[in-house]
Amino acid sequence: MLVNLFRKIFSNNLLYYHGLIIVDTLDQRSGDESWGFTIAGGIDLPFLHRHFTSIIVTNIRENGLAYRDKRLKLYDIILRVNNIDFTNITHKKALEILRQSRPKVQLLIRRLSPLIIEKIELEHNGQLGLFIVGGIGHEYFSDDHGIFITKIVEHQTNKQLHLGDRLLQISSLYNTYDLRFVTHEKAKQCIELACKESQKVKLYVGHTRSAIEIQNERTILHEDDHDRLVPKDAGAAKEEKLRRQQSKISQNARLQRAGMATGINGTLRKKLKTMNITILDDYFDTIRTLPCYNKLNGHNVTIWNDHVQDIDALVDRLKETDILVLIRERTQIRGEILERLPRLKLISQRSVYPHIDIDACNRLGIIVSSNQHVDSPSYAAAELTWALILAAMRQIPQQMAALKAGKWQIGVGATLRGKTLGIYGYGRIGSTIAKYGTAFGMNILVWAREVSLVRARADGYTTANSKKEFFEMCDVLSLHMRLVEVTRGIVTAQDLACMKPTAVIVNTSRAALIEPDALVNALRAGRPGMAAVDVYEHEPMLDTNNPLLTMDNVICTPHIGYVSVDEYELQFTDIFDQILAYVAGTPIHVVNPTVIGR
Question: For the domain bounded by 116-207, which CATH number is listed?
């Protein structure tokens, strides 16, 4: 039944069925020739269902103009004709406009077919050369706010992108931006930011099926019964039906992993309403005390308070888990673990994910949802950074330890006012630290990639002329970068050797930003004179013989930058919202969208 086809298309899997197609022009060489297709629908004549008022192509006459052109397909929904809106139009008016649109007509089409999701790598010269439509508040479809390509500037991109492709995600070398649930302006901003951040970007896009494949499935609507599909070739239709049944049987295991079950007729239904959710590494049993924890009511939640990294022990804990919640990078989730967790469907967390084997998740069909919170700084991390700066400059931990040991004052500290605060990486947290430094009367000096330097100068801060000058001038130097391949080991032993013997370096970002062993050797050499760190190469770091813990000129905290009740509430609200979205069939903040709909 045709009505069942449309019900399936407008189900929870709606997001992955949209294609936007531009049929540039159909050209009537003879003024007497018709367009060669018929339509149904309109606000006055709903097609099959009272809520379906779109104008839809119901027949393409063989050897007619549209048939020979090959771009228009059966069941295409017509959105615009020569820039005239067809989304809220009567059947009679639509016919009138089409008949008057001679000798050329431009069509904007919505094509209902599953998307083929592909990762594309592009190099650019500042722009991708794309024009887009859609987004929240700017929907081209009343039931969808996707971002679609409507024009590709010639010679500005490669042949992998097509008109009508849906943009799902864009990544630079530094950040990933989700384009599926954003406004039109936000989508433009994310694309521009990604292009500024690196010359090479990765796009996750959804293509509609090829014209050849759609043409092979071509059917003609029976004139007497609009609820019936009559194949052009009954034998071919029978073979196609058998092929699809076999395909659905073979896909059943993947659908079960996704929490869905399917019958031979293709009707999707929820298999699991109550999920087994496991939360790891909640050291102080804080999560169940958060207001947002109530979001998980109705699910089976298991919380582990200790840390385990042994593979067999982890598998034993997670073997019945449908959804895994991670607290940042506390536990490494690698392929050898994931392969032994057949029930696992979703990993929900926040921020970066170097501890998760994304390739294994892709292979096994496990969705990873992780809000990158690109627009909001972690004030908890910024405040801890500032606390460490004050503690180092005034020797607070050392003075406290001495006092408890019966000693009175063991040295003379330094004030911040008038000193130079160096910020390496001017992002969400770095820019917040700059404001703190300004409030304390410090001189701000920034070093970062070019796009961040431009932003820092626009905010009124001084930028260094070179990396060497930056390290030489700073009295306090604070690192604020994401750990990606290009930033790993970005601070070298040579850089540290340029610092003042009175300077302090602060790292609340990631230990691997500094070359292995470079910090310890530099502190022993006296340049810089002090360090304050919250992050380590291997965590949890419990080795009391670690050089950083034995040196008097180092202040160490156990990665508590984000560990505050307020920050937990913010982070776990996002994490639990990701779970609810997945259970509802519309996963959000997905870092590996190719697994969706498999």
Answer: 2.30.42.10
Residue pair 113/9 in contact (Cβ under 8 Å)? The answer is no
Tell me whether the CATH fold assigned to 2-113 matches the one assigned to 276-375+567-595: no
Q: Which residue in 545, 544, 407 sits closest to 398, CA to CA?
A: 407
Q: Is the separation of the CB atoms in 269 and 293 below 8 Å? A: no
Helix (H, G, I), strand (E, B) or coil at 65: helix
Confidence (pLDDT) at 67: 82
Task: Say which CATH architecture domain 276-375+567-595 belongs to.
Answer: 3-Layer(aba) Sandwich (3.40)
Active site annotation includes 488: no
Q: Which of 539, 567, 569, 598 is catalytic?
A: 539
Residue extents of the structural domains in the chain: 2-113, 116-207, 235-269, 276-375+567-595, 379-556
Q: Catalytic: 226?
A: no
Whether 91 is catalytic is: no
Query: Buried (b) or exposed (e) across 397-430, using 16+ Cβ within 10 A?
Result: bbbeeeeeeeeeeeeeeeebeebbbbbbbbbbbb
d(CA 566, CA 121): 38
Kindly list the averaged pLDDT for each block of 10 residues, start to end, along the chain of length 598.
44 39 56 74 70 77 80 82 85 87 78 70 81 74 69 65 82 82 84 86 74 33 28 45 45 41 31 82 94 93 93 95 94 94 95 90 94 79 97 96 94 96 95 97 96 92 97 98 90 97 97 96 97 93 93 95 92 94 88 81
Q: Are 133 and 184 in contact (CB under 8 A)?
A: yes
Annotated catalytic residue, options 145, 299, 482, 510: 510
- In the chain, the amino acid numbered 285 is D
Q: Which CATH superfamily is domain 2-113 in?
A: PDZ domain (2.30.42.10)
Residue 520: how many CB atoms within 10 A of its CB?
17
Is the distance from CB of 347 to CB of 356 less than 8 angstroms?
yes
Distance between CA 42 and CA 562 in Å, rounded? 54
CB burial of 335-371 (b: ≥16 within 10 Å; e: otherwise) equals eebbeebebbbbbbbbbbbeebbbebbbebbbbbbbb
CATH T-level topology, domain 379-556? Rossmann fold (3.40.50)
